[in-house]
Design a protein that fits this description.
- The chain is mainly alpha-helical.
- The protein is built from 8 helices and 2 strands; from the N terminus they run H-H-H-E-H-E-H-H-H-H.
- The protein has a two-stranded parallel ribbon with strand order 1-2.
Length: 174
């Protein structure tokens, strides 16, 4: 919901915030569905990893066009996905496709907030995904805290807070 609220503000359509999840703008519990608003085009992906598969299709089509001289600019596809969606089978298959066909021009951003609609994502999940992502050809980078928060957590007086946050188990995380 925060992502779609931000889009509403970026595209100067704050009236959509009042209608979010209204009957004329049907939505899944956390996934907005079309139409977002007049003149705005984006892909509604729902859940179950469909967004990653869709993005790979777009990147494959753009790469094909560039490889066959149909365009000089293959563009770049950006996709965001939550860590709770990463175990979906379609994503594992999509990562194999990326490796097999050497897709370029694709950036995958995973939000590791350890939250799903129905449960907390267990700790250690991010580390388990590092190898499959690297095998698919991604340069894996971890951006855990913002620079400002990192600076605060590095202060000596905040070390116990940092240790507490990083040590939360699944029950405490909720």
């Amino acid at each position: 919901p925060a992502w779609y609220s931000l889009l509403a503000l970026i595209f100067r359509q704050p009236e959509l915030l009042r209608r979010f999840r209204a009957k004329d703008l049907a939505a899944y519990p956390s996934h907005r569905s079309r139409p977002f608003g007049p003149g705005v085009r984006f892909v509604d992906t729902g859940s179950l990893g469909r967004g990653v598969a869709y993005a790979i299709g777009l990147a494959a089509a753009q790469q094909y066009r560039a490889d066959h001289g149909l365009t000089d600019d293959p563009g770049h596809v950006w996709v965001t996905v939550g860590d709770g969606e990463m175990p979906e089978g379609v994503i594992a298959e999509a990562l194999q496709y990326i490796r097999q066909f050497g897709l370029k021009h694709l950036t995958l951003i995973i939000n590791f907030n350890r939250q799903r609609l129905d449960q907390v994502v267990r700790s250690g999940h991010a580390e388990e995904l590092r190898a499959p992502l690297a095998n698919a050809g991604f340069a894996v980078e971890e951006l855990k805290y913002s620079r400002a928060l990192q600076a605060l957590l590095e202060l000596p007086q905040n070390q116990s807070l940092k240790a507490w946050i990083e040590g939360l188990d699944e029950v405490q995380w909720q």
